[in-house]
Design the sequence.
């Protein structure tokens, strides 16, 4: 009899291992495991409840949903999470519930087996069996089987959580590496990569490439007068205004301080000037609203250049753009100068 039961348990674990090998999500894994267990354990309701937790910091917090099981199942799940142990209840379910001050199982439930889903000493959830026909339905070998299953599922959950945390961290690192944390515009490094790519295209295919260099007018004095917080808000406001008023093909970046740049692939000088004039007008006509201080108007100066008409080489394009920008500021600011 024992050999027959051991063979049954080995078949179950073999099926579960095959499911784990091809699983593509934790939810899918749990659904398939429950299907296998239902065919092997008759007259049994099977519940798999997973705790909410951060795999790197903090203990799991059990937050079972109502659709995941009855109040009694959720209560037993919380108890297993707290005690970090299994419960094999064949009789006296009401007495057990009173002892631990948890919701009682309904009278239709004759026996209960609850085991932790865990990784090492960390409990990540629970597996609960409810037998609706027989008291003492689950013996020690059944408990050992489900505990082994709980360890397998726990390892998969940890792997899944760590992979998700790793992916999130990598995304955040890429954001920090390529985007300005304040304005959310691409930063100098990102601009350098795109500028190199676009200059190669312009040279290789004999195409136009325009560039608009932008500075906020009197930014230092505004920052000194109203404070750093106002200066940061102004930079964000201008960045958002720029993004709303360029073409889909244009690339905006913050080079540092109050200086931004717009790269306009395949744009003639006249088209680039039109874009620059549009963003200049938009900034002038869209004041920044400061709580308790009213509307604060800002303006920008823009220098526009185009390869090859404005600059003899792509390497001098940025230098020429800076010259055009300085000229716009010398003329009083709030204007576009093209070379």
Sequence:
């Amino acid at each position: 009899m024992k050999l027959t039961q051991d063979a049954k348990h080995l078949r179950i674990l073999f099926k579960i291992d095959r499911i784990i090998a091809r699983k593509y999500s934790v939810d899918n894994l749990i659904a398939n495991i429950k299907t296998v267990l239902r065919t092997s354990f008759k007259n049994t309701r099977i519940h798999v409840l997973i705790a909410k937790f951060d795999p790197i910091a903090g203990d799991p917090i059990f937050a079972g949903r109502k659709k995941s099981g009855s109040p009694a199942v959720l209560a037993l799940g919380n108890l297993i999470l707290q005690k970090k142990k299994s419960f094999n209840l064949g009789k006296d379910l009401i007495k057990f519930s009173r002892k631990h001050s948890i919701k009682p199982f309904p009278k239709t439930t004759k026996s209960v087996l609850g085991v932790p889903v865990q990784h090492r000493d960390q409990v990540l959830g629970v597996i609960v069996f409810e037998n609706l026909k027989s008291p003492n339905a689950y013996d020690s070998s059944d408990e050992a089987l489900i505990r082994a299953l709980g360890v397998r599922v726990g390892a998969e959950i940890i792997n899944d959580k760590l992979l998700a945390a790793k992916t999130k961290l990598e995304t955040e690192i890429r954001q920090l590496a390529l985007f300005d944390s304040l304005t959310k515009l691409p930063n100098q490094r990102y601009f350098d990569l795109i500028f190199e790519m676009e200059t190669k295209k312009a040279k290789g295919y004999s195409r136009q490439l325009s560039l608009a260099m932008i500075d906020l007018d009197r930014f230092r004095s505004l920052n000194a007068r109203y404070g750093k917080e106002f200066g940061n808000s102004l930079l964000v406001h201008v960045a958002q205004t720029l993004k709303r008023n360029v073409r889909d093909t244009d690339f905006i970046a913050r080079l540092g301080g109050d200086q931004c740049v717009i790269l306009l692939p395949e744009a003639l000088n006249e088209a680039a000037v039109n874009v620059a004039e549009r963003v200049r007008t938009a900034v002038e006509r869209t004041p920044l609203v400061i709580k308790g201080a009213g509307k604060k108007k800002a303006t920008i100066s823009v220098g526009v250049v185009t390869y090859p008409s404005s600059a003899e080489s792509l390497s001098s394009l940025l230098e020429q753009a800076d010259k055009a920008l300085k000229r716009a500021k010398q003329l009083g600011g709030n204007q576009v100068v093209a070379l």
